[in-house]
Amino acid sequence: MPKEVTVAGVTVDPKTKSPIVLLRDAETGNVVPIxxxxxxxxxxxxxxxxxxxxxxxxxxxxxxxxxxxGTRLRSxxxxxxxESTYFALLNLEExxxxxxxxxxxxxxxxxxxxxxxxxxxxxxxxxxxxIPAPAPFESEEGxxxxxxxxxxxxxxxxxxxx
Length: 162
Prior knowledge:
This protein is α+β, with helices and mostly antiparallel strands. It is about 35% helix and about 35% strand.
């Protein structure tokens, strides 16, 4: 059974300088770090801030397609992790039926934020990739995340790839 998570923020891997989106399990406080691309990190950060750009981004165009077709994004799910790669699903509702479509996790998260949809993570992903959050957890304190990520074993970083 997947668990609902929130986007705790976006940070940078101190070793690779790659953006990481941090998904937090409200029940345990644990965090799933997912390495993402720069454009997706920007889209997620803008959605978290509620900022709209003068020109539509890809996620805005996807939302337009959903509206025109009468389809609703019910949730996104980070459903699996295989060979260091995360897999996500868009759970769409069309005419009362649920349709599941494969998606990149970063795009799925950005779309969920823009649509106000739930973000879920499967128990398998949580058990394989969640880490304890620094206490007390405050998303504004990026230094805590940098410190936590710097203390992790370098071999652990190589197991998660963009």
